[in-house]
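Section 3.1: Structural characterization of target chains.
Under the original work plan, the team committed to producing a structural model for every single-chain target entering the pipeline before any wet-lab resources were allocated. The record below documents one such target. The sequence was received from the expression subgroup and is listed exactly as submitted; it comprises 533 residues.
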Amino acid sequence: MSADTPSLKPDDAVSTRKVNPWLIAVAVSMAAFMEFLDTSIANVALPYMAGNLGATNDESTWVLTSYLVSNAIVLPISGWLAATFGRKRFFMACLASFTVSSLLCGLAPSLTLLLAFRVMQGVGGGGLQPMAQAILADAFPPRQRGLAFAVYGITAVLAPTIGPTVGGWITFSYSWRWIFFINLPVGLLALVLVFVLIEDPPYLSRLRTAGVKLDYIGIALLTLGVGALQVLLDKGQEDDWFGSRFIMTLTIVATVCLLALVVWEAFRTDPIIEVRLFKNFNYLTSNLMMFMLGILLFSSVVLLPQFLQTLVGYTAELAGLVLSGGGFVLLLAMPIVGYLTTRVQARYIIAFGWLSLALAMYYATKQIDLSISFYSAASLRVAQVVGIGFLFVPITLVSYVGMPVEKSNAIAGMINFMRNIGSSVGTSMVTTMIARRSQFHQSILVGHTALGSHSFQSTLAGLAGRLTRFGMSLHDAQVHAYARLYRGLQSQATTLAYVDAHWVLAVSATIMFVLSFLLKKNDPRAGGEVAAA
């Protein structure tokens, strides 16, 4: 909190109009769910978009990148925008922009226009996540925040999980354009509910009347830095990372601009990003944990279905069914976790979540192989989701511990930004790791296929012999035997790479488990209040 900002009373966060907070929770969660769903629903439809709009597959990936870039730029400054224009007005503007741009995306006649509308959609969506969370933080008393965040957590964790499955079903059954059209009824209904139910708390009205100075330098540094970071994460593996001059340029721009942004905002009296809040250890740690949760959440969503489809032969629909079990577990776990936050210190719930996730990732290293059954794969996903379910709500809750009420918008904006950047880092990290570690393991396995290897020669001769019995000539049988063995070697190397990726995730979760015990105590009955010493 800056020195010139007066401390506000907790009552200032409460609206003067009496509305059932659970109605507010339903309204804002609808908007958030719609936005979360759009971060992943378009993934499976890219080839269809490319074919329909006369673009290449590489060009179609900008449909995802353009959305993520504009979304990431708005997230960290959403708190400042809410204080500047009013939270309800800003939330409704974002909701209207997201809904209208969804219609335009569905009607887009060319890739160029689709990308322009996706940027518009990302800008609108960037304000929906943090404002939904901030509204819930103010609508509920501190002792019930955990329950409120559980509702929000269901949308935040469940939507990206079911997004590819829903997107695939809509695309196969109807058209890729309907993945955007389905936002229209939800967006219009949410807009009406927000207009009727939500009102800005008194402290926001007072902050808005204090006047606003537009920070052109901060906005420019943020746009360039976050934009460059998001593009390099999305395109890094595709362009061979630092072997590409384009990626090197983006890295330099992102590093310089983001470091300059932190220094610039730290010395401003009216910053667009509240970097001074990171002096609070609890806030710093909760952001780090949310960043890591973004990595593990989206890595797990990418790794398992990708493994099943590329190596085990699952269809997209069957791989989606593997993930669906985890979705049902989340629906059950989130309300339970929300209730536990009113009875148990958040740091202990967080520690249990990280430990469960570490054990689930370790379990995956022992179960992943080319003969894995549907039941085993579904069990792996359920085990992972249990840990994730025990993390999202309490980490969000801890970020508010000991923080002034007038900073709820800034807290929500940054915590959601960290999760989104974590998801991009996680997706990029595991994609790169699978590619690089596959090459490493292949080079090791090839060493066991030398012509002098008795076991290799026996396997080759046996396979060639079986092929000759099916009518092949000896030469053709040997060629086919070599090809089949090499294909099997590649599959084994890639499988080992997936095991390595889960090892890294298990170690990361273990480190976060240890860090959990450094968080401050909170009084479970008071939600975001620090427990008395």
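The radius of gyration is 25 Å.
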